[in-house]
Amino acid sequence: MQKVAILYDASQAVLSTFELDEVLLQILGIVRDYFHLQSAAILLVDDQHRLYARKHYGSGEIYGEDVRLPIGQGITGIAAQKKRPIYVSDVSKDARYVDFVKSTRSELAIPLMVRDEVVGVLDCQSDQLNFFDAETIDLLTLFSTQASIALENARLYSLEQKRRSQLEAINAIARQTTAVLERDELLRKVCTLILQSFPVDHVVLTLREGEKLVVAAHEGKLTPTIEMGGALPADEGIGGRALATARAAVVNDVAKDPAYIAGFTETKSEMCLPLISFGTQLGVVCLESATTGSFDQTDVQPLESVADIIATAIQNANYFEQAKALANVDGLTGAYNRRFFESKLAEELERASRYGKQLAVVMLDIDHFKRLNDEFGHLLGDEVLRQVSALFRAQLRKLDFVCRYGGEEFVLLLPETSGEDALAVAEKVRRAIEAHAFPGVPRPVTVSIGVAECPTHGLTRDEVVKAADSALYASKQGGRNRVTAASAARTAAAPAND
Q1: Does domain 180-324 have CATH number 3.90.740.10?
Q2: Are 2-159 and 338-488 in the same CATH fold?
Q3: Which Gene Ontology molecular function entries are recorded, alphabetically (predicted)?
Q4: Which of 19, 127, 296, 470 is most deeply packed, by most CB within 10 A?
Q5: Could you list the active site residues?
């Protein structure tokens, strides 16, 4: 009766907490203090139906979490398989015994069960032969029933806490991503929020560009093998699988998946979530872990919700970028408009000043454009403007900007370009316009051009633009269809364009 009373008190102690690790420590403490065992461990069942030691006392390799025993192997595995206690009074005479602890002479393994499902095993070992008598086995078996209930309570509590935490994380991500419309900032923000909210080691965001998935952002502590801007085929790897199925793809041991494409040196587990908005495949978010078996099935649904939020936020950012681009583009010619020019010029002047770079501004005016409109009509005049703009773009680098300054006047912004090089570009542009046959116009169309350079002709917006405009006026005064550098320009008020 005394042992039963002790067992009752011990059971109450085990059931007094809901924290899993605390429950496990309470169980092992009771086993150690009341039953005087050399060593004991509580092995739990992982998602691949293998046993691993979550908590223990004593010594032995079996107690490392990296050691996994298939159910059915060893004394503990047999107990889990048969769903009943297995006692071996002399382990040296039992072929099923796995020799992890050299000093063990007898072993008792009791399955921890909830509703006929094995959730773990209480493994008790002694350095004495025939250590466990029938009464002790019965008491430990009864105690294991209480321990199983405590484990289930802890599991439910942990699951509830995890769900609450996940819901809070989902709400936080939804709130914070809704407020960000700049795409690059959004992608960085998403990586940070996921790292803060979920137990992963690295987050990668890839965006679909044609048949490729391009790395657009990543953050974490792993070592990348694919850098920013790197591309992978959209139909390969675990990410390709996620896109093809429109569902999360979870691999808890990437070494065993032939489709896995290594993105990080230390990755052991990976979950890829497709980013899909209104049927459009936007990309994939990949969650990396340096631990095998890192992702639980209960993680999938909340992370799919996060992926849906991210997809919507990216789509909104795309719409914002498109709207912003349209606001900066001249509707007739497709060139940037004057508002964009003013903003970009201020940005490039600041950059040139900071890094000691040169910057050229080229102003161009179509010669006798008013006469062309009067003679051939405004529809043909509009077409000339469109084709002139296209010819400008064809002659320039990708980092240069063609802007419609107003009416028939254009301005070219050439970053990191000297005045001498800008003159060569301007002359190339002038010749291209003169040589082009504009449909419906029986005579050549020409342009007058003025070129100014920062810092030679000014450091501010007004100084550089005025210098280029004065050079343009000098070209018109000099007979049109020519290029003039600002240093050779006369200072005068520009006449009305014609």
Answers
A1: no
A2: no
A3: diguanylate cyclase activity
A4: 470
A5: 408
